[in-house]
Amino acid sequence: MNQLTNKAIALAISVFASVSLANAQSVTVKVTEQIAITKPFTTKIKTGERCYEDTVEVMVNCGNDDTNTIGIDTLIGATLGVVIGNQIGSGSGRDAAKIIGGLGGGYIANQQRSNKQCKTYNQITRCEPIYEYVTEERVVGYRNCAEYNGQKICKETAGPLDTLTVTQKIVVH
Asked: What is the pTM of this model?
């Protein structure tokens, strides 16, 4: 029963729609007034830059590149290596540990001399952009108006129109 009612309603709507369209008249009228519709748009524009001097901290290699010389640091490293080697092993093993420890400590201390880093300061120029915000009106559409039967009829579109199509229903009483 419910399906039958829905079908009857759909049939009635389609008959009414076709009768309404059959009783409609379309007329083309000349557009007499076109008004541009505008909207404000803001744009970010780079107008220049501001530069200034800045000081930055930099790490540089300040060690001695000559690792072939024996300095006080090498002697201290070798001595510490011998002391540590003395704690390892016993008898002739202890003597070998002292020799290896002394050579290793001296080598490590000597290499540290070449890897030493120091702070220094450099002057650099930094520049930052300067922006200006400009707002301008842009056309986003048109309001097209025409006169028909003493009435002003308007339609908003993306572009300007030369004519408007007016559809008028004819109602018979």
From this structure: 0.41
